[in-house]
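Protocol step 4 of 5: obtain the predicted structure for the target chain.
Materials: sequence only (see below). No template structures provided, no constraints applied. The aim of this step is simply to have a reference model before the mutagenesis design in step 5. Sequence pasted as it appears in the construct record:
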Amino acid sequence: MLEDLKAEVCQANIELQRQRLVIYSWGNVSGIDRSKELVAIKPSGVAYDKLKPADIVLVDLDGKVVEGALKPSSDTPTHLELYRNFAEIGGVCHTHSTNATVWAQACKPIPCLGTTHADYFYGEIPVTKVMAKSDVEGEYELNTGKAIVQTFSSIDYGEVPAVLVANHGPFTWGESPGGSVETAVILEQVAEMALKCASLGGRLTPIPDALLDKHFLRKHGKSAYYGQ
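Step 4 output (structure tokens):
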């Protein structure tokens, strides 16, 4: 069932390792078939160099396994919460990429300092609240998803397709599984650049609004003119 989606999700997961965003079995990518309300996701703890499309697990939006012999990623409840609340996304990616995770562990948002960031994210990359003990000891992965959704109560998830989970790491999303990985690659790059800017000392000054608007909207706005 959904063989094309499973193959796409498998390839997106393998791309995480190729892009050096993960080591060992860290991280995961999923994709959704909205018409069938089924999510394809990496199995838990399987190394990327051994991953095959047949290993990808299908679950419904309640987390019930529909197809697959392996256990789905432990982060599945987080992915499902994003799919339930962010209706236009088609893929979700979670990594522990070094520079984005540094910002997450510091519980600091990544400021938008320049045009490279502004080309892809319409403002800073937000960080979630620090999770309460009750959230961690309860349905931890589900509560992680809820913390992300709460963070975006006043932010457009389409304009800022990434978040830092406090003390944890980044989640990104896109129109497809591969799109969510592309966002993760870009996030890691802007996280590294912002971290290096911070190392110079002094106050980090966000990009002027006019320049932010120009660079983001020329790619993503109604009158976008970048590209073919």
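Step 4 remarks: The longest strand covers residues 28-33. The chain has one domain: 3-220.
Proceed to step 5.
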